[in-house]
Amino acid sequence: MKKINKYIQKAIYLCTAFVVLSSCSDEYIDNAKVIAIDSESFFNSEAEYYQAVVAAYDPLQSTFINVLMGEIASNNTLCGGESATDVPGYQQIDDMIHTPVNEQLQNLWSWMYGGVNRAAYVIEFKDKTDFPGKDALVAEAYFLRAYYNFELVKWFGDIPIKPEGRFFLGDEKTIPRSPKAEVYALIEQDLQFAVNNLTYTAPQVGRVTKGAAEALLGKVYLYQDKFNEAAATLESLIQNGPYMLESDYSKIFEFAGENGVGSVFEVQYTDVEGAGFGCLQCSEGNVAVGFQGVRGYSGPDFTPGFSFNVPTQEVVDEFEAGDLRKDVAILDIDAWAASTGAEFTTGYEHTGYFNRKYIPRTRSNDAAGDQNLTNPNNYRAIRYADVLLMAAEAYNRKSSPDDAKARTFLNMVRERAFGNEDNNITTSGTNLTAAIYKERRVELVGEGHHFFDLVRTGRGAQIPGFTENKNEVFPIPFEEIQFSQGNWEQNDRY
Hints:
Layout: H1 7-11, H2 20-23, H3 26-31, H4 46-57, H5 64-72, E1 77-80, H6 88-94, H7 103-124, H8 134-156, H9 180-197, H10 210-223, H11 227-240, E2 263-267, H12 287-292, E3 308-311, H13 313-317, H14 326-329, E4 330-332, H15 333-340, E5 353-355, E6 379-383, H16 384-397, H17 403-418, H18 429-443, H19 450-456, H20 478-484
Antiparallel strand pairs: 1-3, 2-6, 4-5
Helix pairs in contact: 4-7, 4-8, 7-8, 8-9, 9-10, 10-11, 10-16, 11-16, 16-17, 16-18, 17-18
């Protein structure tokens, strides 16, 4: 099945916690039916636990904003769009002039905490009713809470956490922002539970597996420079998991390549329901795809979009001669138009390049909703190539480096990229580290990872406009600071 049951999520739309004022639109609140769900009336059967877990998956679709802004914040792309005032929040992040008053950062904060609270709802009542397989179902909730918290700590640094359960209104005035180390400790704890209680086989397509939990745990270790732990965790996944590199890189990002052999965790999207610009988080489609499409496009294979997140010449030049990934990752629109007769218009900061991985593919004219907002392109959140490159970095940077093993994992990715062993890396030490960093950039370009790779490895200064000791994290949204009534301090220099 394309995705887990979506209708359930609408029955348990949990707009709770200190994000209540910003995570739901006024229109939704005005028109919503009040449904009372509490511990006495819910979590009395396996079906109800399942429904709550499904509801916790739903905010994953809102992570389109995390991916889009993660690229825009890096030196891989320019914001683009129609003009310098098109989605000001994106433009400010691109120029590194963002402030606490930024609608897109507010959205990210609100949507991710909505996910945290939905997952925490299950965790809070995990012991209420017993049934066979409950630990595995609850483990999915632990993974999801870890996933949302990881996104939050990446973007904002110190954040409020509540290990025992949900946030409620008023908690923002009493619960402090926890230091990053404490946030990561909770994330590790949640993921360890998931690893111990899940299997490598998903009960439904799109649901969490042991492999996804191991991969995310390895990434969490890597972000903390816990290289020994990262190496051990990722090695276990590589040796025991069912994943392999898709032999044909060009297939990965097409509809036929969804949930393939190299997909460790994938956010599922459909075009079943539409959305509007007043409620982008309501979309069941991948909103980022339409935003990244070619403006005014008419031609084969693709449909038009809004020309955001346009790759720079710098990242295009990172691809070596003979790298088969280049034409899959980057659409050179001038070359494409010359060969196909396609037509297009140009937008702001036009570079001539587009993120081919995630631009809208041609669909039926009968597809539901606004085709700019309901693109069914899944997001490959964790790919096996990412796992191999993380393992390569961990082995290269751990306390007793194993560069031979690091090269093995790195060259597995490169051999697919070039179709041969002629371009394998043979260097060691810091030169090998640099080669791994470069490989991550070209392998994962357009997938929202590069900004955080630069920051976690101390290379943020490569980003135009980046200010050290400031832009490593983003400001806590102004509204949230206000709600806390002095309980939370703003990040330094914002």
